[in-house]
Amino acid sequence: MDVLRDYANELDAEVHSTDPGGTITFPLMPVGQTVDMGHDTRGKPLFDPRIFSSREFFRNPYPYYRILRDHYPVYHDKLHNTYYITRYEDVWRCYFDDEGFNTIPKGSSSGVLGNTQLELSGIEHRRRRNLYGQHLVGRSLDLRVPSIQRLARDMIRDWDNQTDTPWVIDEGKKRIVELGMAFANEFPVRVVCEVLGFPSEAQKQFYYWYNSMMSGLGGSLTHKQGLEARQSLEDYVQDLVEERRRKPSFLKDEDGKIIGKDIITKLCETKVDGDYLSTEEITSNIALVVAAGGETTRGAIINMWYLLLQHPDQFAALCANPDETWDRAFHETLRNSSPIGGQPRHNTFDVNMHGMHVPAGSLMQMVDFSANHDDRVFKDPEKFDIFRDDLYSGKLLRSGFMKEGRCSHMAFGVGPHLCPGAWISHQEAVEGSRILQRTLKNIRLCTERMPKDIDGVSLAPIGIVRVPQLWLEYDRE
Ligand code: HEM
Question: Ligand 1: which of 91, 298, 419 to mutate, most ligand atoms within 8 Å of CB?
Answer without folding.
Answer: 419
